[in-house]
Design brief:
365 residues; mainly alpha; Fic-like fold; two-stranded antiparallel sheet; 14 helices; 6 strands; 7% strand
């Protein structure tokens, strides 16, 4: 019979090979210092824009890992409202998305606050404002009172990947996790983030939403490690890119003994890659700032400014006159005129022919 990590004597006194993870810790710390140092060179507006992009990606990718696709424009608009950032083409967001945004902003803005049952329950309620997960009613803002199995189906055969601790043990195990997490010990803060991520997954304390909550906790602890609420990269985006490997290492670790070296290496390598990939997010923000500095005196109307901003903010699909007509509620003639004028001013360039004709920013990624 399979033995899970919490069934080993000594749990949760995890062990690891410090020599094996030292280089990864050093690399991540260097990358963190580099990205924070780079962003400090720029003004508050650029930092806020970069954070808006990073948190939009963090929220959408964390939900995507669980198979839930959130509207990124709604996420971005909700974030902008709650961060008091002026946003072109701000749209109304759902109550559900507003709740998810509130949870992660509480985590990163108040990273120095203790994590308590009450605070966790608040986050959980924000993830499930209707008390349902899909069509199913679930227990919200309370620890689970049923057993929890992680299973998959292969044909007619059910495969059990993990059996969480019995529900009677959850309150006590969570109390132990929260005491450790809030303690002012000498644990490396990056290791603390990696261990807390794993430990929460092991307990699986809620009926649903455990993955999203563990990633919110991770964001809180990364902010705590960096001593700033400014977020410029997304760990969830990296996990989504390598989701199979993520689930594989979790399954191997939770089904093994107390040595979690392999998990720590995987987490730190992924975190390092996430920070390196953030250069693309930061690059878009800097390109946007450079563009508006260059075109400060270019005569663009409000709609044209909004078109350009949407392209910089990651427009989905190709920009066509038909989409401009629909998004900005203008006539076909006006849409074509707006785009033709932007092209004549050297801001956009035309690509494709006929029905495939679309417009891209000229000289900008």
């Amino acid at each position: 019979m399979m033995k899970f990590i919490y069934e080993y004597d000594g749990f949760p006194r995890f062990i690891w090979d410090t020599d094996e993870i030292l280089s990864h810790l050093t690399n991540v710390a260097t990358l963190q210092g580099r990205i924070l140092g780079k962003m400090q060179q720029f003004g508050f507006d650029v930092q806020q824009e970069a954070m808006l992009n990073a948190l939009t990606e963090e929220i959408t990718k964390s939900s995507e890992i669980e198979g839930e696709i959130l509207n990124s424009d709604q996420v971005r608009s909700s974030l902008a409202r709650q961060l008091n950032i002026d946003l072109a083409n701000e749209i109304t967001s759902s109550h559900h998305i507003d709740g998810v945004v509130q949870a992660i902003l509480d985590a990163v803005n108040n990273y120095h606050w203790p994590l308590t049952d009450e605070r966790l329950f608040g986050w959980h309620a924000a993830l499930f404002p209707t008390g349902r997960s899909g069509i199913h009613t679930i227990q919200v803002a309370k620890y689970r009172t049923d057993e929890m199995h992680v299973v998959s189906n292969k044909g007619s055969r059910e495969i059990i990947h993990y059996v969480a601790p019995s529900h009677e043990k959850v309150p006590g195990q969570m109390a132990e996790l929260l005491r450790w997490l809030n303690s002012a010990d000498n644990e490396n803060p990056l290791l603390k983030a990696a261990i807390a991520h794993l430990w929460f997954v092991i307990i699986h304390p809620f009926e649903d939403g455990n993955g999203r909550l563990t990633r919110i906790i991770t964001e809180m602890l990364l902010a705590r490690a960096e001593k700033t609420n400014l977020r410029f990269y997304s760990m969830s985006a990296q996990i989504q890119k390598d989701k199979k490997a993520y689930y594989k290492i979790l399954e191997q670790t939770t089904a093994g003994g107390l040595n979690i070296t392999a998990w720590l290496k995987w987490f730190l390598q992924g975190l390092g890659q996430a920070i390196e990939d953030s250069t693309a997010i930061v690059g878009r923000v800097l390109a946007k700032a450079e563009f508006w500095h260059k075109h400060a005196l270019t005569g663009l109307n409000k709609t044209q400014q909004d078109i350009v901003n949407r392209l910089f903010d990651g427009f989905t699909g190709n920009l066509t006159s038909g989409k401009v007509e629909k998004i900005f509620k203008v006539s076909q003639t006006t849409a074509f005129r707006l785009l033709t004028d932007l092209t004549a001013k050297g801001i956009l360039e035309v690509q494709g022919k006929g029905r495939s004709t679309h417009y891209v920013l000229k000289d900008y990624p």
